[in-house]
């Protein structure tokens, strides 16, 4: 039985060595070749002096070397830290410093972008550069005390260096949140977390070695990384893509005969507007990272009538918590489903007791997917990772669960419905308003393609509901307010509807950046009153 995350690749290489494992542009690797490169990368990192559980940062776009570096770090007995290539230099430096990265795998171009911040990374000892050096003198920052190693030369050096001994409860990865609510937090995941998560997803998505999974999400995002671990667990093929436009994704699905595609709601909104081929080979699509609004869901189901749709809920601290089987989609399209295999999800009151049916409470997740905590942050770890409720007191060491901070309710059959994040809830004249509920009504009007409800400080009401929609020629704010009046109580009504040029802003993980929208509107009502 596979216990360490990199063993997925070696097991598949033993069972089906010539099966296609990884595709990027015109390059591809079968499982035998991928396993060989991962093993060579592990030896290269060890030859560079990486210690047991020391961190290897990977700051690259999606490409074959990125995947080899991540799993090679795990195979060496180190810890991989995927860094979103969309982050700014200061954010990258924060991650490198926060978790004491010793070896950084990146390109010459990306390293030059870090010129002003690389000196802050005092634990960095080696930079491994992927790809050729530019023909002109490289505008690299001064790197005193840091060795520069070329990726190709390190991989081709040969030899085998024994890896550090690891067990399934040891740290395998640190994934940093997008940082929309402050500096990114590093979530520590063990080998057991990643292996159990992949096994659970493979079970309910029914993945096999025949699947071809398109990876469009950042690999630094737990949902994006899951596309790799899920595929390698099943012995399937992953096609890596750094897309520019949504239509490129549709073309890639057709060209590469993709059977599985994962995305977040803002991307699904864009994909729902595309012209899909009459006969798509997509077996399934999945959504996580926020609610998929009914109009978008309906458009996708109409465009892809033979494709199964899985609505899911997850958080980096527990990888994945719930999924809605496609067979339940017609009956409860607004539900996020029930617990995934090998997990228990509870709806809990503030005092730790379980909520009754349809009573709102906090979602609490227990099981093998619960992360080890936040890197270098015991206070936040203690706030989020607490003893599981309703457990027997016979054990001297309490089992820790993830207390999500998300408000949900469960119906009599145990299907769960998302209400909102505690820190996103809008308090209007003493009422608690869920932005998710407001957005459901806004989308149901059919007047907007993309919108977000946020809370904005108000001198009279404490906060007021503001809806920001992407600008459209045939849309007026007043028409949306009028359409909402018959569907929302007065305290939930938008006090203002604003229009945003182009698509709404995104976090590095592709979610709508609510914090940026809130900051842009922070003084709106105060300025109006003056």
Assembly of the depicted chains: single chain
Distance between the termini: 68 Å
| Major sheet: arrangement of strands | 2-1-11-10-12-13-14-15-16
Count of distinct strands = 27
Q: How many separate helices?
A: 16
Q: Which class do the helix and strand fractions yield?
A: alpha/beta
Helix coverage percent: 25-40%
Integer average pLDDT: 91
Biggest beta-sheet profile: 9 strands, mixed
- Which band does the percent of strand residues land in? 25-35%
As residue ranges, the low-confidence spans are: none
Q: What is the 3D form?
A: globular
Radius of gyration: 24 Å
Based on the model shown, name its key terms.
530 residues, alpha/beta, 9-stranded mixed sheet, 5-stranded parallel sheet, 16 helices, 27 strands, 30% helix
């Amino acid at each position: 039985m596979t216990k360490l995350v990199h063993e997925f690749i070696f097991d598949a290489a033993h069972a089906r060595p010539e099966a296609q494992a990884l595709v990027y542009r015109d390059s591809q690797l079968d499982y035998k070749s991928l396993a060989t490169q991962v093993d060579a990368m592990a030896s290269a990192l060890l030859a560079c002096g990486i210690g047991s559980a020391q961190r290897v940062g990977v700051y690259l776009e999606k490409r074959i070397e990125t995947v080899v570096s991540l799993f090679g770090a795990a195979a060496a007995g180190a810890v991989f830290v995927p860094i979103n290539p969309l982050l700014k230099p200061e954010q990258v430096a924060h991650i490198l410093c926060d978790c004491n990265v010793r070896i950084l795998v990146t390109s010459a171009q990306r390293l030059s972008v870090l010129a002003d911040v690389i000196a802050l990374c005092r634990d960095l000892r080696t930079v491994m550069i992927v790809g050729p050096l530019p023909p002109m003198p490289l505008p690299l920052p001064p790197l005193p005390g840091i060795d520069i190693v070329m990726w190709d030369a390190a991989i081709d050096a040969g030899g085998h260096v024994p890896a550090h001994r690891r067990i399934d409860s040891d740290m395998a990865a640190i994934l940093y949140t997008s940082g929309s609510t402050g500096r990114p937090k590093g979530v520590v995941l063990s080998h057991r977390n990643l292996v159990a998560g992949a096994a659970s997803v493979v079970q309910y998505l029914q993945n096999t070695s025949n699947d071809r999974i398109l990876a469009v999400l950042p690999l630094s995002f737990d949902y994006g990384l899951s596309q790799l671990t899920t595929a390698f667990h099943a012995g399937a093929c992953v096609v890596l893509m750094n897309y520019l436009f949504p239509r490129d994704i549709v073309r890639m699905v057709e060209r590469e005969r993709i059977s599985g595609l994962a995305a977040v709601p803002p991307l699904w909104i864009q994909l729902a507007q595309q012209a899909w081929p009459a006969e798509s080979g997509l077996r399934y699509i999945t959504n996580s990272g926020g609610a998929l609004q009914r109009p978008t869901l309906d458009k996708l189901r109409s465009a892809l009538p033979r494709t199964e749709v899985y609505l899911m809920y997850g958080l980096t601290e527990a990888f994945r918590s719930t999924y809605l089987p496609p067979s339940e989609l017609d009956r409860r399209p607004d539900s996020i489903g029930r617990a995934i295999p090998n997990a228990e999800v509870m709806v809990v009151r503030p005092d730790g007791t379980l909520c009754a049916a349809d009573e709102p409470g906090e979602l609490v997740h227990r099981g093998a997917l619960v992360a080890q905590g936040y890197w270098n942050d015991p206070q936040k770890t203690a706030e989020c990772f607490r003893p599981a409720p309703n457990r027997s007191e016979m054990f001297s060491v309490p089992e820790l669960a993830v207390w999500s901070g998300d408000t949900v309710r469960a119906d009599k059959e145990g299907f769960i419905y998302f209400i909102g994040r505690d820190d996103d809830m809008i308090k209007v004249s003493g009422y608690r308003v869920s932005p998710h509920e407001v957005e459901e009504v806004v989308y149901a009007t059919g007047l907007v393609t993309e919108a977000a409800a946020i809370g904005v400080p108000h001198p009279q009401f404490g906060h007021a509901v503001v809806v920001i929609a992407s600008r459209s020629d045939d849309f007026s704010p007043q028409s949306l307010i009028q359409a909402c009046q018959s569907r929302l109580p007065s305290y939930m009504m938008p006090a203002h509807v604003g229009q945003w040029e182009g698509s709404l802003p995104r976090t590095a993980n592709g979610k709508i950046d609510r914090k940026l929208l809130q900051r842009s509107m922070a003084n709106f009502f105060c300025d109006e009153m003056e």
